Structure formats: C-alpha cells, structure tokens
Amino acid sequence: MDQDTFRPLTIETDQLGNLQTIESVQGALDFLTSKWPANNEVSQERAIKMCMLALQGSASADAAREVFIEAAKQAGMAIRQV
To answer: Which of 50, 1, 42 lies closest to 23 in space, CA to CA?
Structure first.
C-alpha cells in the first residue's frame, strides 16, 4: 500500500445524493481545497494541514483520514466507511 493511500471512504457532499469516494491523502486534500462546503473552515484548515503533513511524510495517511472524517462530520456530511 502506498504511503498516500488509506482505507476508502465515501462521503455525501452538501448536495443530497452526490457521493464522493476518497481513497488517498491527495484525494482528501483535493476535496478539501476544491469541493468543500463554505461552512466550518476551522476543521477544514486542520484537515488540510494534516493532509499536507502526511504528504510530506510527517504524519500517517491514517491520521490524515481520521482528521478528514472528523472535519466532514463537523461540516454536516454523511460518511460511509468501507
């Protein structure tokens, strides 16, 4: 398993029925920076920082995944973990 990948998760975005599967730190970072809803910027920023640390090798992909999940929950998105 690549150091960037993690156990996939699917989130339902701010549009009902719009599902997005995230399988890597880079995928989470891309979602955080381009598709994130406008609310809850504090948890979004924390998740972005953790993803960047993971991509630099200073944190694990699993840690980035957990922070991403928490941020998504705080932003009101439904999470489906595989």
So the answer is: 1
> What is the value of pTM for the model shown?
0.90
Containing structural domain, residue 63 = 5-81
- Note whether 46 and 63 are within 8 A (CB): no
List the structure tokens of 66.
Answer: 């957990």
**For 4, left (φ over 0), alpha (ψ -120 to 50), or beta?**
alpha
Number of structural domains found in the chain: 1
pLDDT 10s digits, 9-46? 999 876 667 889 999 999 999 999 998 876 768 899 99
CB atoms inside a 10 Å sphere around CB 12? 16
